[in-house]
């Protein structure tokens, strides 16, 4: 069974900006999905902001092993109930990859629980991406460093929690550096943030970038059955404790109670 990927695109710049439409005539989401579909181990489809429920219905999420998210101009237009549904799917075991300006997307910020802010400059600088974790599966087949001739600069400090692993760091011509490939575990789900992908440059046509995203899909894929309720917090009564125990002292809660949220 191939890994089922949904590439979620905001699909706003592609409709409004001639430069972006010229680079990505079918949308950035389609370019990313097309590249993934050249891998026989992956089958990728797309969803966009403008779809009903932004294309993120419960059924679609249940049929998605790894979700890829690109957004920029319309983060605020994503409905909060959809954000919660996406985060619940991640906590239940769905893989998630957030690209470039998705650092400020609602689901990424909710999953990180942090400002996710950074410094930035749109000046077409050269970005040199350095591998920082040898033999990491997300870096498989990649050189120790590779360049993107034109990219937007993102600089540290990047306001995210410390990752499990830093797979890449980026250097920019203006002197800044940035942790550009970060892994996280959130609930049962694996999360990867990958920095490159400003919409006015052909970044998602770059073979190395495509390789990173395909590797990240395979890394984030979790073959286990999705948790039915990743927010469950069951009470375990004394009489079913694994070792025999006697109840001691006063208590606030009654048997069978749900507990406070
Ligand atoms: Zn950008």
Note the topology.
Blueprint: E1 3-9, H1 13-16, H2 18-23, H3 28-36, E2 42-48, H4 58-62, E3 66-70, H5 80-92, E4 95-99, H6 106-112, E5 119-131, E6 145-155, E7 165-172, E8 177-186, E9 189-194, H7 207-220
Parallel strand pairs: 1-2, 1-3, 3-4, 4-9
Antiparallel strand pairs: 5-6, 5-7, 7-8, 8-9
Helix pairs in contact: 5-6
Bound molecules: zinc ion.
CATH architecture of the domain at 3-113 and 181-220: 3-Layer(aba) Sandwich
Strand adjacency order, main sheet = 2-1-3-4-9-8-7-5-6
Q: Which structural class best describes the helix and strand composition?
A: alpha/beta
By DSSP, the count of extended strands is 9
Keywords for this entry:
binds zinc ion; 22% helix; globular; Rossmann fold; 7 helices; 261 residues; single chain; 28% strand; alpha/beta; 9 strands
Structure overview:
With 261 residues, the protein is of the alpha/beta class. The protein has a domain at 3-113 and 181-220: Class I glutamine amidotransferase (GATase) domain (Rossmann fold), CATH 3.40.50. The protein is 22% helix and 28% strand. It has 7 helices and 9 strands, in the order E-H-H-H-E-H-E-H-E-H-E-E-E-E-E-H. It has helices at 13-16, 18-23, 28-36, 58-62, 80-92, 106-112, 207-220, and strands at residues 3-9, 42-48, 66-70, 95-99, 119-131, 145-155, 165-172, 177-186, 189-194. A 9-stranded mixed beta sheet has the order 2-1-3-4-9-8-7-5-6. Helix 5 (80-92) crosses helix 6. The radius of gyration is 20 Å and the shape is globular. The relative contact order is 0.16. The mean pLDDT is 97. Zinc ion is lined by residues 100-101, 152, 198.
């Amino acid at each position: 069974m191939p890994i089922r990927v949904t590439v979620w695109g905001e699909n706003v710049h592609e409709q409004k900006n001639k430069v972006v439409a010229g680079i990505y005539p079918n949308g950035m989401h389609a370019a990313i999905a097309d590249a993934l579909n050249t891998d026989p181990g992956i089958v990728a489809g797309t969803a966009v902001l403008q779809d009903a429920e932004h294309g993120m219905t419960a059924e679609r999420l249940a049929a998605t092993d790894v979700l890829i998210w690109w957004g920029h101009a319309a983060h605020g237009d994503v409905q909060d109930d959809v954000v919660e549904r996406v985060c619940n799917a991640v906590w239940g075991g769905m893989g998630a990859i957030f690209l470039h300006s998705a650092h400020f997307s609602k689901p990424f910020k909710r999953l990180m629980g942090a400002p996710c802010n950074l410094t930035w400059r749109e000046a077409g600088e050269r970005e040199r991406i350095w591998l920082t974790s040898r033999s990491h599966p997300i870096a498989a087949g990649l050189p120790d460093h590779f360049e993107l001739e034109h990219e937007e600069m993102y600089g540290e400090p990047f306001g995210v929690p410390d990752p499990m692993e830093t797979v890449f760091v980026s250097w920019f011509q203006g002197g800044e550096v940035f942790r550009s490939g970060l892994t996280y575990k959130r609930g049962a789900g694996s999360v990867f943030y990958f920095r490159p992908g400003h919409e006015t440059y052909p970044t998602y046509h770059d073979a190395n970038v495509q390789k990173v995203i395909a590797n990240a899909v395979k890394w984030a894929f979790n073959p286990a059955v999705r948790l039915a309720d990743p927010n469950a917090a069951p009470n375990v009564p004394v009489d079913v404790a694994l070792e025999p125990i006697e109840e001691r002292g006063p208590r606030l809660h009654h048997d069978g109670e749900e507990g406070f949220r």
